[in-house]
Amino acid sequence: MAARAIGSGTISFGLVAIPIKLFSTTDTTKAIHFNYLSTDGSRLKQQYIRASDGQIVEREGRVQGYEFAKGQYETFTPDEIKAMNVESTNAIEITEFIPLKEVERLYIEKVYFMGPDKGAARSYHLLKQALKASERAALAKYAARGKSYLVLVRPMGDGLVMEQLKHHDEMRSIDEVPLDVCELDDAELDLALKIIEQRVNDKFEPEKYQDEVRSRMLELIEQKIDGQEISVPPEEKAEAKIIDLMEALRASVGAKSSKSAAAGKRKPARAAAKNTDAGRSRPSGSKAKQSKT
After folding, report:
1. CA–CA separation, 199 vs 195, rounded Å?
2. Could you tell me the pTM of the whole model?
3. What distance in Å separates the CA atoms of residue 12 and residue 4, rounded to the nearest whole number?
4. 3-class secondary-structure state, position 187
5. Where are the extended beta strands (E) located within 121-232?
6. H, E, C per residue of 31-97
7. What is the rounded distance in angstroms from the CA atom of residue 131 to the CA atom of residue 159?
8. Domain total for the chain?
9. Domain holding 125: CATH number?
């Protein structure tokens, strides 16, 4: 089934304008949602409660306020809030073309697929091909939903993606994190590199991994629907241990080596078993499945 657009926009640079459509990169139907119910099974709805007396405040009795000092607010009307927002032109205005490798992944907040709108296929693919050939990405300003975003347009496969970036003033620096810098031995580094070599993969293959928590939740939900009880396993507290770094590294290298050796030994055994089975003659007219005696 073809993806459904969740928005639209126009990429512009110089005198070039490319109408595009935006598509979500995630399948939200895979998420597990729980609703709040009362004990009689009725759905619950959220309400705003006045802190001073506990009374419910309906929509018409609410205003938005900005806390400029502890417990002090300046209130704003809907029109004043609207005046502060930028005009939602849905224009994706390219300001510069930068090397893709220069963009720190820390800045990426959301990602959208981009597809050409009607009549824009030629200019869309021309931009994609030019970005590929130049090994650059387009940095742009995007005005939508009353806000201004910094975005990166880059090629992906046969199309383009738009990455919504955080603004620089929203970011913290790693310099704020206490790192307790220390000296490392060459022997420690050598063992760490051996561990990396044992688990190296030259490809990113996310399909090899699944959301185990989600799978487990779905399994337990099905059990509950079928009338089975869900038992909570006793919580085990991990024992805090001070581990010698060199011993831990050596053990990690040894454990991987043992697994590889064991796997290598099992393969010929399986092959021999297949050959043995192949050599056996099956009685004429015998069934593939036999009942247990």
Report:
1. 7
2. 0.71
3. 23
4. helix
5. 136-144, 147-156, 159-165
6. CCCCCCECCCCCECCCCEECCCCCCEECHHHCCEEEEEECCEEEEECHHHHHHHCCCCCCEEEEEEE
7. 11
8. 1
9. 2.40.290.10
Q: What single-letter amino acid sits at 159?
A: G
Kindly write down the DSSP assignment for every residue of 103-140, as one continuous string: S-GGGEEEEEEEEE-TT-HHHHHHHHHHHHHHTEEEEE
Query: What does the alpha-carbon distance between residue 41 and residue 105 come to, in Å, rounded to a whole number?
Result: 45
Is 124 inside any structural domain? yes
Which residues, other chains included, contact 35 with Cβ-Cβ below 8 Å and sequence gap of 6+?
Answer: 43, 44
Percent residues over pLDDT 70 in the chain: 85
d(CA 135, CA 155): 9
Residue 125 in any domain: the answer is: yes
The amino acid that residue 260 corresponds to is S
Q: List the domain range (segments joined by +) for residue 95.
A: 7-25+86-170
Task: Say yes or no to pLDDT of 215 above 80.
Answer: yes
Dist. CA 84–CA 61, nearest whole Å: 22
Residue 233: inside a domain, yes or no?
no
Has residue 198 been placed in a domain?
A: no
Block residue for tokens 């800045």: 107
pLDDT digits (tens, 9 = 90+) for 239-283: 666 567 778 878 888 776 666 666 555 554 444 444 444 444 444
User: From residue 154, how far is each of 6, 11, 99, 142 by CA, in Å?
Assistant: 19, 12, 10, 15
Q: State how far the Cα of 111 lies from the Cα of 163, in Å rounded to an integer.
A: 4
What number of other Cβ atoms are within 10 A of residue 282's Cβ? 9
